[in-house]
Amino acid sequence: MSVVFNFIYVFIIISCNVVAQSHPDQFLQCIESHNSNSISKVIYTPKNTSYTSKFLSSIQNIRFISPSMPKPSYIVTPVTESQIQAAVICSKANRLQIRVRCGGHDYEGLSYSSKVPFVLIDLINLRSIKIDTKNRVAWVQGGVLIGNLSYQIAKISPNLAFPAGLCPTVGVGGHFSGGGYGTLFRKYGLAADNVLDARIVNVNGQILDRKSMGEDLFWAIRGGGAASFGVITSWKIKLVEVPDIVTVFTINKTLEQNATDLVHRWQQIAYKFDRDLFVRILITRVNHTVQASFNSVFLGKIDKLVPLMQESFPELGLVREDCMERKWIEAILYFSDLPFGSSLDDLTKRNPNPRTYYKAKSDFVKDPIPKFALEKLWEFFKEDEAKDAQLILAPYGGRMSEISESEIPFPHRRGNLYEIQHLVYWDKEENKESQKYINWIRRLYKYITPFVSKNPRAAYLNYRDLDLGINNIEGNTSYAKASVWGNKYFKNNFKRLVQVKTKVDPSNFFRNEQSIPIFLS
Ligand SMILES: Cc1cc2nc3c(=O)[nH]c(=O)nc-3n(C[C@H](O)[C@H](O)[C@H](O)COP(=O)(O)OP(=O)(O)OC[C@H]3O[C@@H](n4cnc5c(N)ncnc54)[C@H](O)[C@@H]3O)c2cc1C
Ligand SMILES: *[C@@H]1O[C@H](CO)[C@@H](O)[C@H](O)[C@H]1NC(C)=O
Ligand SMILES: *[C@@H]1O[C@H](CO)[C@@H](O)[C@H](O)[C@H]1NC(C)=O
Ligand SMILES: *[C@@H]1O[C@H](CO)[C@@H](O)[C@H](O)[C@H]1NC(C)=O
Ligand SMILES: *[C@@H]1O[C@H](CO)[C@@H](O)[C@H](O)[C@H]1NC(C)=O
Ligand SMILES: *[C@@H]1O[C@H](CO)[C@@H](O)[C@H](O)[C@H]1NC(C)=O
Ligand SMILES: *[C@@H]1O[C@H](CO)[C@@H](O)[C@H](O)[C@H]1NC(C)=O
């Protein structure tokens, strides 16, 4: 009882403090006493002139930067692990929550917003990448972005790579700890499948590595989302092999060019393709029709790809002229969302893209969606709200089918033909109508229910969707309530995640709207 009272009391005091900042600052005093090593140079309060630019620096979804969104009481941009330790200890002592930000790509803005007073630990300064080509491993710090990671690996060896996602500004903190897939995942699995070790600051401010954290916690942070367990300061990853030359192509087909038949066929075969061949589909509206864009990379040359496609997917009609041979790193640029004409150097940049408003959802498909249902799905793309909407269909199979569902918390393995990401974007002028776009994607999601996975209707953590359910802000969410969304992201692994969480963070300090809850006793 007194704990609850105390919490509410401190909550009110701190809320006022955020505005006034007039009382002696206990958080700052604490942090200086724990880490005198010029820590004040990496702490920003709303009074510092660069506070706002630091806050905005890596936010991707501008849906979450309206003036009414709560801002952090402090932003800490640590340059050492010990500064993270101090930030954790002092946040806890002052009953502030923590949000940790790496690339800032969280779909629901959970890495930089919170309804209760909080400290933002932004890992922007922790970006070292140490590559050991002999042992084919690398240590990457918790603030590294995946574009720079690929670039630095390719610079040292064009035949080495890491199987991560496509957007270069995605951060390793959220991405690896939530799974992380890209064009190599049918061959090598997820980013999280290729993590060998990690360093984490736990709730007591201790730094643990794989050995000292133990296999349960090490399991949990590879797919269960690190935000529930601590602050990852670095990952050790296994590098994989890619050939000197790969081949990329994109073939666009509109409805008038048989897109429906081709998508229907693709569903039945893409998961069985050679694992060197990745062919995804992007569905968009183009000139009052719907276009399916078959977007591919093959780990080999054109001479091998053309006959392979003739054998695996002749209906698409791929010819040599559609294909381009590239170095691996050039293929990464091809798949990135960087504007046409970008250079390889642009892969290392933090924020080259215009930001937008968006809402996304995810689904897994286990049986091909019938043609009539695809045709009805296309109807959604004729609505006004779908001007900048997109479905991304990513083929499973290959290595993904070999890894067991419980190997790491990410459970979506054998039996999935493909994953769909449903996305809708809108721009500033349309901001007042955000709800219209959000409703559009909710209607589409409802429509497609009969054709996607059931019991649970699975979802991908890294495409976070708060429509699936949220925790009580007090931290006392029951297991039953949280399993509604937990089972979708983690299936049977959810229970083990709750067990690990209860063991390593029994006071539920590291929490957010969709963090792993503890068992309430
Ligand atoms: C444009 C775009 C393209 C994408 N493409 C892909 C793709 O191809 N494949 C794919 O799998 N996913 C993709 N994603 C999804 C992406 O994997 C997730 O959004 C991921 O969580 C982003 O990680 P981040 O570090 O950039 O985000 P952040 O917003 O910084 O973090 C996301 C979550 O992780 C936590 N976190 C971050 N760093 C740490 C840390 N060091 N320690 C503890 N917790 C931490 C945050 O607190 C938050 O809960 C894409 C997202 C976007 C916006
Ligand atoms: C923010 O302002 C305080 C008080 O003026 C100062 O001590 C601190 O160094 C500033 N922080 C940064 C990162 O400049
Ligand atoms: C890219 O990585 C290199 C090597 O670790 C680092 O020095 C550089 O600061 C990084 N760039 C960005 C923008 O993060
Ligand atoms: C495919 O369509 C996209 C989007 O309309 C376009 O940007 C791209 O240039 C097209 N590619 C080819 C090869 O036609
Ligand atoms: C569309 O597919 C049908 C049957 O699969 C085929 O007969 C027809 O020629 C195709 N049309 C185009 C434009 O490819
Ligand atoms: C869409 O219209 C533009 C302009 O008329 C044209 O250049 C383009 O080829 C069209 N795209 C498709 C896929 O029909
Ligand atoms: C959680 O705690 C709050 C505040 O103490 C209380 O109002 C609420 O009923 C609790 N919820 C559950 C599920 O216990």
From TrEMBL:
Signal sequence, renumbered to the chain: 1-22
Record keywords, A-Z: Alkaloid metabolism, Disulfide bond, FAD, Flavoprotein, Glycoprotein, Signal
Domain of life: Eukaryota
Protein name as annotated: FAD-binding PCMH-type domain-containing protein
One Pfam family hit: BBE
Bilayer-crossing regions: none
Organism lineage: Eukaryota, Viridiplantae, Streptophyta, Embryophyta, Tracheophyta
Annotated ranges, domain FAD-binding PCMH-type: 68-242
